[in-house]
Design goal:
Low-confidence stretches: none
Radius of gyration: 22 Å
Order of helices and strands: HHHHEEHEHEH
Length: 203
Amino acid sequence: KVYGPHSALLYGRRSSLLRLSSLNHFNVNTETAAHQKLLVGGLGYESTYSVSAVLEYLCSLGGLFSLPPLSATALDDETRSIVRGALTVAFDRIAAHESVLAERALDIFSKYESVEVIGEVSPSSAARVPTFSFVVKDTDSASVPTKCLASKVGIKAGAFHSSRLTDALGLAGRQGGVRGSFVHYNTVDEVDAFGEALKNALA
């Protein structure tokens, strides 16, 4: 959700797809277009086209600002090597920066005895990403985001489509947990702004 509109890609064998019932319109010939069986209507063209910018964006984070010509079917060895190198640098930079954000956020949480982080409390990128679920002792989780809005900080509360996990953690009675998300384009100053909002919400 921190990356914008959701897009998904599914690979299926044609023989397997042909055995499925179609979810698409009755007049779509899914015998000749088996890949359309799981489409409820047509493609989201804007979202689908936007995927073409993902590689360019990630490569730019790795220092490659002008992509070599890309084939629709295959990359030659030289192009593959250039792109792979840029992506490796990009993901290393993302992991390093997100570890900094995670460490800062965890430091903020540690200041409050009433706040319990759900899950891993190491800032290492090998252990977690800087998306945090937490609860506040004796507090309805839904009240925390509302209070943070006064500081213009947007966080959410609830089960986040994980009702069984929420139930298993005993959080159903307090409207789930609170979740705050950071990602590589966030800054340390923005984590600090979240910290101020949380301080005001818990005051």
